[in-house]
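dumping these here so i dont lose them again. two proteins, back to back, each one seq then C-alpha cells. dont judge the mess
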Amino acid sequence: MKNPILRLALSVIVMSLSFTVLTSCAPQHPVTGKKLLVVAAENFWGDIATQIGGDQVRVVSLMSNPNLDPHEYEANVADAKDVAEAHLVIKNGGGYDTWMNKLLAASPSSKRVVLTAWDLAPEKLPENEHIWYGITNDVALTRALSAALTQLDPTHAEYFAANTSKLLTQWQNLRQQMALLKLKLNHTPIGLTETIFLYQAGDLGLNVVTPFAFMKAVAEGTDPSLQDTYKVEQQIRSHAIKVLVVNEQTLSPLVDKLQRLAASAGIPVVFITETMSQGPMPAWLGDQLNRLAVALGHQAVQ
C-alpha cells in the first residue's frame, strides 16, 4: 500500500477492533453526526486527545491549572455533568485521580469508552503514578487514544491517523532531544524534591541521590523522616548535587527551605510542573528538559 496515511488508518482500525474486545464499556454503535465529547481528568492527556481528534472532538480537561496542587483537586457538579455526557473518558489511574472513579460510578453508561493510562503504560516505576513523564507511556496512550477515537467515529479514520502520525513524530523528536541531552547530562548527580521527575531522570542517565523515601513523602504531602531530611540538606550544603529539581505545584515550608539552602550554596533550582503549563505536550516536556540543561551549563537542544 503506497499511501502511508491510509496504511496507518487501516492499522488504527485493526487496533480499535482489538480495543473493543478489551474495553468492557465500549459502545455498541459508532457516534455519527456530531463532535465526540472527550473528558480528560488531566490536561496533558486532554492535549493528546486534542491533537489527534482535531476539529472532530470537543475536549474538556478537568484538572488544568498548573498553579494548583493536583493532589488537592475536588470534582464539582460541572465535572460530573461532563463525565456523564462524555463519549470517551481518559484518566490517569494508579491511585492518582481516584475522584474520577466516583464520577464514573455516578453515571454508568454502556455507550462510554474509558481509557486508564496506568493500565496501558508499559513503563511503570515503583510507587510512582506520574507515568506521563515517561515517553514510552505517552506513545502507548497516543496509540490507544487514536484507536478509541477511530472506534467511536470510523468515518474519520484517515483524519485521526494523519494527526496520530504527526504526534508520533513529535514524540520521536522528543526522544532524539533526550538522547542528545543524555550525552551531556549522563551521570550528573541531582536532587529531587519528589518522585515525578524520576521517569525522565532515568532516561537521561541522571544520578538521583535524594533518598526515595524523602521524595515519596513530599509527593504524598507527609513529613519525611528527620534522618532523610538531614541527608538531603547535607547533600545541598556539600554540593553533592549539581541541581535541585522542584515541582512548583506542591510547595511546602520544607521545600521552600531546600530552595533557600540551594540558593545559598549556589546550586541552581529548576522548576517543573505536574500539570501541563502549556501545550503541546511534547513541547512542554522538552522545554523543561532544556531549562535543566541550561541550568547545568549546557546549551538547549531543539
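---- next one ----
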Amino acid sequence: MRFRKSIQYVAIALLAIFIQTSCTNRQESFALSLVDETGRPQEVLLNLLNVMKIEHLGNLNSIIEETQKAWLRKPGQERWDIDPNQFKALEESARPFLEQLKIQDEKKPKNQDCKGILLLGATSKTQKKRYDFMNALDINASKYYYLVGERDLDPSVESPENLKKIFGEIDIADLRTETNVIQKIINVFPNSKENIVASAPKKLNASGQFVRPTTIDTLNTWLEKNPEPGKYLVVSSAPHIRYQNAVCQRFLAEKNLEDKFTFETIGYGSKTYNLPLFLDALARELYETRLRLQKKGILS
C-alpha cells in the first residue's frame, strides 16, 4: 500500500513539474509577444505605448492605426534613411520595454535539424553579415535558399567604395542589384551547401511605377522552387527578426501551409540603439500579426 502511495506521489510530483514547465514556456513565449493569439495587447506593448505617448482605445485595431501614423517610416523611405534622433527625448523611457522585447538580441536556432535555410535579402553589407552568420551555424541542412529581389543598389549605402569593403580587389562592375550581390557573395565566399537563389522581379505599384519586391514576393518565389515540406530556418538580423518572423508566419497562414512548413526566424544582434528604427519594425510586426490572425478567423 505504501509503495502504491509512493508511486502516486511521484507521479503527481512529475505531473506538477511538467505543467509548471509547460506554463513557464508558454509565458516566456507570450512575454516576448506584442499581442496574444486572440489579438489582445500585452502589457509590454501597452507600457511602451504609454511612454511613447500614443493614445489608443486599448484594442489592436486602434493601436495599429495610431502606430502606423506615429512610428512607420514615410512611404518610399528605406530603413537606412530613418532619422535616428526622431524620438531622442523618449529613448531612455522606452529602453526597458524594448529590452523585454529583445529587439536587439541575437537569436540562435532552437535545434540543429531543418530541411534548409532561407536567407532574407537586405543591403549588401547586411547580406554579407547574414551570410556569415548562416555559415557559422552548426545545422543539419543541405540547401540554402537566398530570398532576394531585383532591387537596384542604393548608392548612399552600396557605393563602389562600400562594395569594395566586402569584395576587396575583386571586380564589382557587374553589381547592379541585390540579386547580383548575393550571387557574387556565394561565388567569392563559397560554402559546401546547395545554394539556390530565389530572386523576385520588380513589380508595378498603384501609380504605375516599378518598385522593389517585398519579403512576401520573395517567399512566393521560394515556393515556386518546390521546397520539401518541413522546418526551415529564416535568417534575418536585429532589429528586424521579430517583424520578418511575423511576415513569414502570415505567409504560411495565407497560403494554408502551416501543416506543411514551419519557419523559425533567427539572426545576429545589433549593438546600435536606434529607437525610430525599432518602432518602425514593431509597427510593421503589429500589422502583419493582425493579417495572420484575420486569416485564421481569430480577428475580423
